[in-house]
Amino acid sequence: MCPFKKVEKEEKQKELLKGIKEHIIKYVSKRFPGYMIMLNELVISKYGMSAIDALLEAPSKLYAVMLEYYEGDEESAKLALRYTFLRPLAAYLGNPLLEGALAELIAKGLDEKFKKIILEHIEKD
After folding, report:
1. pTM attached to this predicted model
2. Are the beta carbons of 115 and 56 closer than 8 angstroms?
3. Cβ-Cβ contacts under 8 Å for 98 (sequence gap 6 or more)
4. Considering just the CA atoms, what is the radius of gyration of the chain in Å?
5. d(CA 79, CA 99)
6. 91-104 residue pLDDT tens
7. Which helix or strand (DSSP H or E) is residue 77 part of?
8. Domains in the chain, start-ordered, CATH in brackets?
9. What percent of the chain stands above pLDDT 70?
10. In whole angstroms, what is the distance from residue 20 CA to residue 122 CA?
11. Most buried residue, 9, 22, 27, 66, by CB count within 10 Å?
């Protein structure tokens, strides 16, 4: 691939990921006031990144924090992850059916596969 095309592709990905982040933050803030602030504090204190960055860069870290917050209750942590982050993400990507599959990948610690799926969907556009 031409170096200029590669840079252009990376810039487009960054812009699309920024759009995803903004969409999810708006969605969560509107439906679950205060939840993102609380999660951010927990994720930042443990991993040094925001909850939304953790979702897109290391989703199993976000899940680990949520699992800890819900005192090891996997069902509650998965449900919260799905409704707060994965539902708006799947809707933004135009494929609501992704929600469950993405939740399973995160719960299994398959971060790279999760990120690959996200990138494949944003590159379709």
Report:
1. 0.88
2. yes
3. 86, 89, 90, 117, 121
4. 15
5. 11
6. 999 999 999 999 99
7. helix 74-81
8. 19-124 (1.10.1200)
9. 94
10. 10
11. 66
